[in-house]
């Protein structure tokens, strides 16, 4: 799109599509999930194979979903040029994660119509980012679906559990769903290639995501699946087992070294696909990661650049955990933060001190009566002092350098000039920061009940 700045844009308004809206993901469990796609190929006049004619109508088992972002593929404007009524199909077989890409559109501009400007080569753009094999032929993709039923996840089974999902409308019933979590690493045969397919989801759902190289054996992988009751299809062979695996999401954890002989695991990527979000699976995955690393050699667990949604989920879970700590029993609106609190949470649950401080502030706000002016003022002061501490330290350090005559008067004046922030501006800024923090904390408190 950037190339066509001078272009007579309005003439082709209908040929510019919001890429966040037109990309559609599907986790394909069996050939029945592809019925509408075979119908599309018929409408578009493509050749249709014999098998597809046999298909009976049924809806998709896993609800299709859209990406959260597309700028890594289609640029900052997140749109696609050159097609009318465009749908970009990005399909994955639900267990093996074989990928199928296809475009559906009502019309495509030609170079003659646009003075030589080509429509975006959407499939090429996606495939070039994928760094793994993709398929463009529906028959080829569907032919491989029979292998989905025999798929066994890589690595070792860590846990199996059930989740009872609530009905979302009057016609639905509560449903018991079965999930399992596997742990793998790069020494598991076939897993490196599987990971290449898993990580193709990242750029669509995580801000600033990039791929990781997993030739380093400090990486651990936690992969979550739903065990779907097998319903088969007209074209399926007799079955060996009564369920099939469906990929739900995964997390990578890097085991960093910590002096002298310890480990500091860091959660790097963490993804639950949209069709499975908000039913507690992210919290469950986080809980299993905590359990996995709860041993003597672990200092604490950190998270690399957490998204807002992840931080919300983590705050809720960590608050629930911390309610079991000794310091929580005596927590009151006038309790002040101490490193002892951090140590207890670190020992017991491997929470890192920065996160424990956050949890402390949330739980303390929960106990604070915001209608009591003095109590509320004390609370706000506590937070603002924490926010202001790095600034205060910086200024004190400069003062100390001057006292020790470690810097000249000229350098001192220069340092103060560049580092000192006018009081009025600082207060305004602190108030703003406080308001943002309080609103985040109140959301968590609402969830804690
Ligand atoms: C963040 C993410 C992992 C959460 O997974 P999840 O399975 O939906 O999490 P849970 O169901 O355990 O949610 C627990 C609570 O966290 C909060 N939460 C989670 N996602 C939220 C969202 N999008 N908006 C608001 N609150 C959210 C909710 O309070 C939720 O409880 P509720 O559903 O009862 O309100 C998932 O949304 C995701 O993968 N997002 C895209 C990628 C991403 O941001 N990854 C993290 C990178 S560090």
From TrEMBL:
Its main location: nucleus. It is found in: Nucleus. It holds the Pfam family Hat1_N. InterPro entries: Acyl_CoA_acyltransferase (IPR016181), HAT1_C (IPR048776), Hat1_N (IPR019467), Hat1_N_sf (IPR037113), Hist_AcTrfase_B-typ_cat-su (IPR017380), Hist_AcTrfase_HAT1_C (IPR013523). GO terms for cellular component: chromosome, telomeric region; nucleus. It is an enzyme of class 2 (transferase). Its EC number is 2.3.1.48. Residues 391-447 form a coiled coil. The keyword Repeat does not apply. Residues 314-365 form the Histone acetyltransferase type B catalytic subunit C-terminal domain. Keywords: Acyltransferase, Coiled coil, Nucleus, Transferase. Residues 15-207 form the Histone acetyl transferase HAT1 N-terminal domain. The keyword Cell wall biogenesis/degradation does not apply. It catalyses: L-lysyl-[protein] + acetyl-CoA = N(6)-acetyl-L-lysyl-[protein] + CoA + H(+). GO terms for biological process: subtelomeric heterochromatin formation. GO terms for molecular function: histone acetyltransferase activity; histone binding. Transmembrane segments: none annotated. Belongs to the HAT1 family. This is Histone acetyltransferase type B catalytic subunit. It comes from Dermatophagoides farinae. The lineage of its organism: Eukaryota, Metazoa, Ecdysozoa, Arthropoda, Chelicerata. The gene is HAT1.
